[in-house]
Every structure is written in structure tokens, then in C-alpha cells.
Amino acid sequence: MFVVIFLVTVVLWATLQHFRQRQRLQQIAARFGGPKPHWLLGHLPEFPADDIPGIFERMVQLHEEYGQDLFNWGLLNDHMVIVSSPENVEKVVMAKQTQKSMIYEFIEPWLGRGLLISAGEKWFHRRKIITPTFHFKILEGFASVFNREVSVLVDRLSPYADSGQEFDIYEPISLYALDSICETSMGVSINAQHNPSNQYVRDVKRMSELILLRIFHLLGSFPRTFWTLMPNAWEQRKLIQRLHDFTDSVIHSRRQQLLAAPEQRKDPTDEDSLNSKKRHTFLDLLLNVTVDGRPLSDADIREEVDTFMFEGHDTTTSGIAFTFYQLAKHPDIQEKLYQEIVDVLGADFRTVPLSYGTLQSFPYLDMVVKESLRLLPPVSNIGRRLVEDIEMNGVTVPAGTDISIPIFVIHRNPAVYPEPERFVPERFSEENTQRRGPYDYMPFSIGSRNCIGQRYALMEIKITVVRMLAHYRILPGSAMCQMRLKTDLVLRPDKGIPIKLVLRQ
């Protein structure tokens, strides 16, 4: 009898707590937009469970119907606040302390607590260590990698130009970006463009697929319990072990090389190293750095190398592919950009090596890339978890709340971008740029946790676009107008980007 009374008391107490919290949340939700939630499932019925692109499309529609700031109910009292108004975006990204939201926990088994996921003192110290890696003189060294790998890409695509065959440009760009990121981050050649069936190539691709499946799986919300019992979780663990083994072997090999050659054990960011012609990799920096007189452990280094690989592969792939998508749809803009390439580079425009410095001479290229990143930002959404209470819309949003910032929606605000669906590079001319606020355009996020590698990404995108347009005209494929988008942590085309190539004479 006592057990029954105890259980009933526990149930009643839990029910009372649930309704008290529900009442508090409803007071907050009243200050935000959104459809009426189901009493149990919240807004989950709003999203088509078997249509991942449909989930993304419905989220965009909700902003069109209910405004810039939304309150999204999940199961029971689970919830998320979605903000795209500049004043609320500023409050979140400029908060003294925030953490990454729960969705980033899905990639923690692979990336560890690297720069993307870590918080507090660890994040601050790692950011301070890694920031010098993206000094423009180090980026100059990376340019030689991009020049070499994009030449491989141009050659690999020539059969499509010869045959006039339609093909998906996303896949070859993904292999090109993987070759580039492996060279610049670890100093190893995996030759993904020549050998797409390489085990590491297949493992990276499959990891991205499993992350996507987990995000949209009902049990994926329980990372420590139910998810570990799913077949996908077992497969993921095997993949992670192989990926970690590969990175560990590269770290060990390079550490031994540095120990055997003391003259190479220099900080790549000191003045002498920056002025030398030797190319340094991201891994070299991490191996040479010390914290409180001690080198980073192999586990620490692997976290950051894997994070750099993850952040620099899929995002750059989408950035390049979406730029080609826009150029294929707008031949007049493509030809104007081609003419700039010829004018700037001269008679040897197809072969002259491109550098970080050279790219500063392409103002129209800069506008084209920025407008592409506006319409189709590779990171279409960023998540934060509040560490402290924040006032929004006249109500206090408590610490612990997950906040979503939909960059895709922010970039299509008609009050800032008239006819926002149109591709208009001139939006980013010098005079037009001055008319926007700092929270109206943020393809690389903003605030203290913005993308540390944005100059790296822009350089790779621009070198790729220049080299491709120097050799080919890009035409739209037959199904291009039907392209749908999906997003996990990166915005991607659901079924690729079909194009045709014509060799320029």
C-alpha cells in the first residue's frame, strides 16, 4: 500500500511540475509567433516526417506566416526559440556566455570537444591558439594546394564537356574539397578525385549521412540511451574508430618527422616562419604549439584536425556548388564574371597561378560569391544554448533555452533585400554594403564564435570559380529548376545539382 501511495505521489508531483513549467513557457510563447501546438506533440505534426527537404521548406514557411521570431514546441514541454530579428540575434550572439545547442552533441563522438563544440575556458584558449593559423601569409601557402587540386578537377570534368552529358556537379566538387582539406590540414594526399572509392573518402561521406539520419530520427534526441541501441549507432561507432585511427596515424607520423628534424620544430606563425616559402599545415601548428609549457596531446590535436576537416569540407563543397548553380542559371552574370577574369589575368588567364593577393583584384567575383552565400548559405542555421537569462520581446527567456538563428531566413528579409529571391551580385557593391546592418548578412556566423576559417573558405571558393570559368561555360541541367534543399548542419541540394559544361574556345 505504501508503494502505491508513493508512486501516486510521485506521478502527481511530476504532473504538477509539468503544468507549472507549461504555464511559464506559454507566457514566453505568447510573445513569439507560431501555430497552435498539439497538447502532446507540440509542433512536430507541422513537419513531414518522411520528407527531409519538406521539413526545411516548412520551417521557412512558418517564418513567412508568423514573423521573424518563433516559439517552437516539441514533445511535451520540449521547446526552442527561433530568432531572426536583428535585435534578438544580436542579444544571442553577443551574450557574454553561450553554449552550442543540443544538435551539436550528435557530432561530438567524431569531433570530440574541439573548437566547434567546446565552451568556456577550453574554447577561449583553443580559439587563441588556432586563430594565427589563418594569417594571410599562411593562406598564401594553401593557395598552391587549391591551384593544384582544381587543375585536377578541371581535367576530370573534361569528358563531360566533350560529350555534352548532363551530370551532378556536387559530387566531384566534394571530392576536390576533400583532397584540398586533407592537404592543408594534415599534409597528406588521399587522391579522392582519382580514387573516390578510397576507404577514408567513403567513411567521411557515410558519417555525414548518419548525422543527417540521427538528426531527423525520433530516438536521436536521446543520445545516451535509446540511440546507442540502434543499428546506425553501431555502424557509426565503427566509422568513427576508422576515422580516428586514420587521423591518429597521420599525427603520429608527422610528430616523429618533427622530432627527427629539430629545425622544423618552429612556430609556423612566428615572423621567420611566415616569411619563409615553406608551406605549413594546420597540423604543424598544433604539433608545435605549447600550452603552459606543455605540447597538446594527440587527442587534443585530433579533435581540432577532425573539426577543421568537418567544417572545411561539406561547407566549402556547398559554397562552391551553389555558386555554380547560380552562374548556370544566370548566363549574363557568368559572362560578365568571365570577362573580369580575362581582364585581370591577361593572356595566361587559364594557367597563371592564383594567390590570396591576386584574388583581391576581382571585385565582381567578390560580389558574385557573397550574393551566392546570401541566397544559399552553406550553414543555414546556427544553434546556441543560453547560459544566462536574456530579455527578448518584452519577456525573460531563461538560461538553458535552446536558440536557433536561421541564417537562410535572415538573408531573405525583403525589408533588407528587395526581391530577395533574385540573384543580384550588385547588392554587395561598396555603396550597397554600407546600407545593411551587421546582423543582416552572416554566412559565417557572427560574434565571438564566428567561423574562424572564413578567409580560407572564400579563397578556395574564388580560386575554384575562376579556374572553372576560365575553361568552361556552365549551363543548367534539365532538372535544375526542381532543386530542393535539405539541411543537417550544412545546407545541401537534396538530389545534386545537374549541369552541363561547354569548353571555352
Automatic annotation (TrEMBL):
Organism: Anopheles atroparvus (European mosquito)
Gene3D superfamilies: Cytochrome P450
Entry GO MF terms: heme binding; iron ion binding; monooxygenase activity; oxidoreductase activity, acting on paired donors, with incorporation or reduction of molecular oxygen
Protein name listed in UniProt: Cytochrome P450
Coiled coil: none
Organism taxonomic ancestry: Eukaryota, Metazoa, Ecdysozoa, Arthropoda, Hexapoda
Similarity field: Belongs to the cytochrome P450 family.
InterPro entries in the record: Cyt_P450, Cyt_P450_CS, Cyt_P450_E_grp-I, Cyt_P450_sf, Cytochrome_P450_Monoox
CDD domains named among the record's database cross-references: CYP4 (cd20628)
Cofactor(s) annotated in UniProt: heme
GO cellular component: endoplasmic reticulum membrane
Subcellular location(s) of the protein: Endoplasmic reticulum membrane; Microsome membrane
Predominant cellular place of this UniProt entry's protein: endoplasmic reticulum
UniProt keyword terms in alphabetical order: Endoplasmic reticulum, Heme, Iron, Metal-binding, Microsome, Monooxygenase, Oxidoreductase, Signal
Residue sites binding heme per the record: 451
Membrane protein topology class: Peripheral membrane protein
Signal peptide bounds: 1-18
